[in-house]
Amino acid sequence: MEDDTKKWLIFLFVLQIILIGYLGYFSKYSYDKFNNFQSSFNEFKSNTEKSFENVGEKIGGVEEEFKKSATQFTTSIQKLEVESEKLGKGLKDIQITTKDFSSIIEETLESVVSIQTNLGLGSGAIITNEGYIVTNHHVIDGVTAAAIITYKQGTFPVRLVKKDSRLDLALLKIEGNFRPMDFANVKLVKVGEKVIALGNPSGLSFSVTEGIISQVNRELNGVSYPLFQTDVPINPGNSGGPLANIQGQIVGINRLKIKGFEGLGFAIPADIVKNFVTPAIKEDRELLEKLEQEK
Q1: Would residue 168 show up in a list of annotated catalytic residues for this protein?
Q2: 102-292, what's its fold?
Q3: Cβ-based neighbour number of residue 271 at 10 Å
Q4: Calpha distance 232→213 (Å, rounded)
Q5: Each residue of 262-292: pLDDT tens digit?
Q6: Which is catalytic among the residues 168, 207, 214, 224?
Q7: pLDDT confidence tier of residue 182, bands split at 50, 70 and 90
Q8: For this structure, is 239 an active site residue?
């Protein structure tokens, strides 16, 4: 019995030594593996960080290059815009100096009328498509009979809407559908600008004469506002007709010439004309609408 016990003790002792040795080996193996793994991980981490740094540097470089390219592109666009503006101005100057009125004469004459009265002849300009016409007050002053002759559409009876002897302006009305003329911006009118007078001088219906604006804001005795001076011939029958620019817009309404002098005519500026006709047309339209409703 004692011998068996000794054998078991010896067996357990040997087993313990084996287990301790095995555990020691396994621990050392695991420790080495862990160290190797940690070293590999640290190396991987270091390499990854370096890679990100390199990528960041490259992205930064690309971003910087992009900014430079964008700046250069913007500068180029700005230069092109400046050159384009200069080119546009140059082309505009060329067009102004070379273009004549032939391309707008036909259409513009459609907006010009001959005013025939028992006292004489005059001219006018159609300013709305429903047939409102502006002319001089002295063209219709004291008349007892009048008719309007258009460039293409024949003869029309006429109605006086409003007149102002101080301004020497009158607003007339005919019935129908017409091609109107627009008013020019008088602030853009310059000395030396080419203009044409359209009208019916001495009964020569729908004549056109060309000249320039000789001066703006010209004051004359007996006239309460500044006039446009022009060298365009203004003859009897031209009164009340439009003075038009190269765009076919009304620069002014021809009013008078200085007797005994050639090329010394005057026109009522478009802004004064517009300020007279605009409220008059509005009032007349309202009156017509009211009369229509009362029928």
Answers
A1: yes
A2: Thrombin, subunit H (2.40.10)
A3: 16
A4: 8
A5: 778 899 999 999 999 999 999 999 999 999 8
A6: 168
A7: very high
A8: yes
Alpha helices in the chain (DSSP H): 2-98, 102-109, 137-140, 270-294
> What is the number of residues in the chain?
295
Marked catalytic residue, from 138, 205, 214, 284: 138
* 139-150 pLDDT, tens digit each: 999 999 999 999
Hey, what are 48's tokens? 């990854």
Query: What whole-number distance in Å separates Cα of residue 226 and Cα of residue 206?
Result: 27
**What are the tokens at 147?**
């008719």
Torsion angle, CA of 79/85/87/92, rounded to 10 degrees?
A: 180
Instruction: Tell me the one-letter amino acid at 276.
Output: F
Spot the catalytic one: 114, 207, 214, 239: 239
Determine the Cα–Cα distance for residues 273 and 222; give it in Å rounded to an integer.
18
Other CB atoms closer than 10 Å to residue 199's CB: what's the count?
31
Per-residue pLDDT at 248: 93
Query: Residue 206: helix, strand or coil by DSSP?
Result: coil
Q: Is 102 a catalytic residue?
A: no
What pTM does this model have?
A: 0.66
In three-state secondary structure terms, 170 is strand
Average pLDDT in the 22-35 region? Answer: 56
User: Which amino acid makes up residue 44?
Assistant: F
The structure tokens listed for 111 are 């907006």
In the DSSP assignment, the letter for residue 145 is -
